[in-house]
Amino acid sequence: MRWQEIEQFANIPMRLVGPVQIIGPEVNALVPLPLATFETPLWPSTHRGARVCTEAGGIKAIIIDERMTRSVLLEADSIVDAHEALSSILQHKEEMQAVIAETSRFARVIDIHSQLVGNLIYLRFELKTGDAAGHNMTSLAADRLIEWILTRFKNLRYVSISANYCSDKKASAVNGILGRGKYVVTEVIIPRALCQRLLKTTPEKIVQLNIKKNLIGNILAGSIRTANAHFANMLLGFYLATGQDAANIIEGSQGIVHTELRDDSLYFTVTLPNVIVGTVGNGKTFDFVRENLAKVGCLDERAPGENARRLAIIAACAVLCGELSLLAAQTNPGELMRSHMKLERHK
């Protein structure tokens, strides 16, 4: 029997947690957080973080940048030919935009980065993709651009539609530096009394744990542009619940937690440079996905791209809530395992 003849679904438990108050130019509302996961302690933990942040006045969140990328690989006979061709290619961005516009009315080139390795030419195309995450949109644009380039530069040859300089679904430095997806920053200030009452800890303990665990610990591990405890947990749950390509948590979870003691309060912020989400496209037609997107207000009539930006911010706020709650739990000996034993072990 061929695989095309079989259609089955993997059922993953899913719950709404929160809601959490979000404040900012893109989102200013009380928003629920849908999470699909087998790790059941993630729900009460993220819910606790959402409650704390809401009682503290809400999470401030903004998007710094957005782009989707696809890198292609071409080759010449020599480095001289490769360099001459690349220099010429980069002078024709307007013509390449015209080629891209034929593939989608939402695709717009932002920038093109390049690397030469011997006679090999690595081109990294960076595009705006509207409300789509943009994987297929950028790949189609790159495919057409390869045709356009090879037609005009007869001394170049095709090697691959994907050159790993994107970098898609792999841990790398390039995405954090040049960007891939939505670059989201969120922050909250939590008074000491709230930390003690709901998080059962103090601002000082969380600040110190972040330094010793997230910063020093990740340096020892050789992590790439990463200083966090478990961004991937919340991102995976949120991605599955909203119909995203779940493999993008690999670059998406490369983010940084920063904490400070502000007077008598905790300043807590998470930075996620690579949140890759969309509200249209593959995976968005399932009923549960449409319901969750509607619940978080990402199916409303807005200008192209605004629903996806809103979704990226909500995803980042879910990450902050879960990260804050876990770090608070880890300041107290035994708390983490007690919750896992209670929720995941059965007699």
Q: Biggest sheet, open or closed, and with what strands and sense?
A: 9 strands, mixed
CATH superfamily of the largest domain: 3-hydroxy-3-methylglutaryl-coenzyme A Reductase, Chain A, domain 2
Structurally, how many domains make up the residues? Answer: 2
Apparent shape: globular
| Portion in beta strands | 25-35%
Give me some keywords for this one:
single chain; 347 residues; alpha+beta; 3-hydroxy-3-methylglutaryl-coenzyme A Reductase, Chain A, domain 2; Alpha-Beta Plaits; 2 domains; nine-stranded mixed beta sheet; 9 strands; 25% strand
Describe the fold and architecture:
There is one protein chain. By secondary structure, the chain is α+β, with helices and mostly antiparallel strands. It has 2 domains: 3-65 and 181-344, 3-hydroxy-3-methylglutaryl-coenzyme A Reductase, Chain A, domain 2, CATH 3.90.770.10; 67-160, 2-Layer Sandwich (Alpha-Beta Plaits), CATH 3.30.70. The chain is 41% helix and 25% strand. It has helices at residues 42-55, 79-89, 93-101, 135-152, 174-178, 192-199, 203-221, 231-241, 249-252, 287-295, 306-330, 335-344; strands at residues 14-23, 29-36, 59-75, 108-117, 120-128, 157-160, 181-191, 256-262, 265-275. A hairpin with a 5-residue loop joins strand 1 (14-23) and strand 2.
